Amino acid sequence: MPFKIKWVESCSGVEEVLKIPTLAGKLILHSQQDGVVKADWEIGEDFDQSSDFSEHELNILQQLNMYWLNRDKSINIKLLKQGSNYRNQVWAELCNIPFGETITYSALARKIGSAARAVGNACRDNPYPLFIPCHRVVSVTGLGGYNGQTKGRYMAIKCKLLEFEAAGKI
Known about the structure:
Structural class: alpha/beta
Number of strands: 7
Largest sheet: 3 strands, antiparallel
Strand content: 15-25%
Order of helices and strands: EEEEHEHEHHEH
Helix content: 25-40%
């Protein structure tokens, strides 16, 4: 797995927002101290990327650039632990899906003794898309959804992520 997640119980300090252009779309990271507290994809208007980064932001930017350039290299990242015990169980199982592979919502649900719809809801509520790879979960009849949507720009991002993992590049 490309991302080695270290869960932290708390983060404090000023929240920094880093907008990163990636091969799949514009990733927005919210961080405090040296941990990421939220991630999301920007859907909508283009933005001007600042070139004035803090040391922490530069570290994240460099590591993410390595992810896109060398998919075999592991990236260490600190994420703020959040969500219910159930959500954390689903998210932990998502991290066990091998890079470049997919699993259906129903198969993942069977692994943890749950229901496909509940797994889908936990995927939709994932606070760290890309790092917790909910894009690797698909429907038995197709791609399923991504970030609560079944068409549109989020689905385009899901497709790009799956293509990147399958082929090593987009």
